[in-house]
Give the backbone structure.
Amino acid sequence: MAAPITDVREISRIGYGFMASRALFAALDLDVFGHLADGPKDLAALARATRVAPERLIALLSACVGLGLLARDGERYGNSPAAAAYLVRTAPAYFGDYFRFQIARQIYPTLQHLETALAGERVDFFAKVQDPQEARHFSIAQHSGSLGPAHVVAGLVDLAGCRTLLDVGGGSGAFSIALCRRYPGLRATIVDFPSVAATAEEMVGKAGLTDRIRFVGGDALTTEWPGAQDVVLMSYLLSAVAAKRIGDLLGRARRAASPGARLLLHDFMLDDDRNGPATAALWLLTVLTIDPDVASLTPGRLTEEVTCAGFADVGVHDVIPGITRLLTARAT
């Protein structure tokens, strides 16, 4: 739990936070960090590269310097170490599309309807995802954001001997790809909206796993799940459905699972006392815009739910510290 704040400047920092987000999104869209990948440049060179008038561009560059995204040495601007590693499109660990597409284009505008969601009205976040072009943007962004957690999860679990994986709501297939790469004997089935299929198949193809990962189009709440699964995975799914549907999804997981099968639940989770962590709490507030009746997930609550659904041997592990956790269990 964070210490209660005492300074009005801390309130201002929270209130002005959206300004920093917009500066980051704008710099990414202009590929400012990419234009600096080969070394520092002055304002005139950056203005030519971005096709933004120097008088306007300097406002954005100054904001990025103030935020620590860029460094300035005399008249020349350069990337910070973090920007060079994660915000340059050609960098191996490039993370910018996650912010450009999922955060800037989906999450950010949807949050304008948070008050509506708090009043109990549905915003219908996934209406956008039904459009093929928007689904592609969302899936590519989610893929970028999920690769890191997927590799962490692959290192936390022991799936030796497992042959079949059901990835429910698996989107672009980041988790299936990471787990299949780690376990050569594993084959995966992804169940997600049909509009996501093309992007998932593209990502799976790029990973060289077309022969081991297949896609089934449908709604996780209504589509029949294939059975006899050695592993059932749900990542960011339970936080996107009404609390009353969690039991249904876990019941489906149990019916799809072979005896002794592994259940993997990766999601935003609060501490059991619900006092934090702050970022997990903010994400669980955000998902109210997906469904105003979502649950504030905690390890304790999910342990009770999975036990009632017919799973045992529950374990909980940090994945993205302060944001997501992995709950593991076995089918009884």
